[in-house]
Amino acid sequence: MRIIFATGNKGKMNEIREIMSGFDIPILSMREAGVETEVEETGTTFLENSFLKARAIAAVCKSKGYEDIVLADDSGLEIDHLNKEPGIYSARYLGEDTPYSIKNANLLDRMQGVPDNERSARFVCAVAGVLPDGREVSSVATIEGRVAYEEKGENGFGYDPIFFLPEYGCTSAEISPEEKNKISHRGKALARMKEILSRELR
User: What is the CATH number of the domain that holds 194?
Assistant: First the structure.
């Protein structure tokens, strides 16, 4: 048995392995597991999209004779002032291959002149799981913050450099990876999924 995570993002896989450590089961990205499939994210919520990915990857693994646990997440940034954009389109905002430096600069431009009390935002992460026997599990978590006024920090990826955490006085790209894994949307959603799997695999 393996845990296959539906991503090829190295930064995300580093976080996943750190948070999900403790299982006596290898945790592989879909690429490392040799699973190549494109899944169209047609859901209207983060959870719907994560289940679309998990089910599709699980079907591929099953067709190859594997008894894998398949996990998939969908996450993104919701900015209240921009009607919760980029939301479920966070990864595809301005194009999937567009560097995040350009995406971040665009969002900062759109938020120019907006005061602190109207810069509320959150990261959302939904993790869906399909177990070898077909059962499905899920967890959803968020972290609240504000849109920063400029990009800061080197520790994160994606929108981390423009996501300001008032209680820390810095962006989520400026805190340590260890601290981020404890408080982040993905960290919390994965920690809950770890608890769920621990129960289900007894």
Answer: 3.90.950.10
Q: 73 with 47: CB under 8 angstroms?
A: no
Residue 74 known to be catalytic:
yes
pTM over the 0.70 mark: yes
Separation in Å, CA 7 to CA 57, 87, 109, 144: 10, 19, 30, 24
Nearest to 137 by CA among 3, 1, 8: 3
Q: For residue 63, give its domain range.
A: 3-200
Select which of 24, 68, 73, 74 is catalytic.
74
Instruction: Read off the pLDDT of residues 53-64 as tens digits, 9 standing for 90 and up.
Output: 999 999 999 998
Say how many domains are in the chain: 1
Is 57:86 a contact under the CB 8 Å cutoff?
no
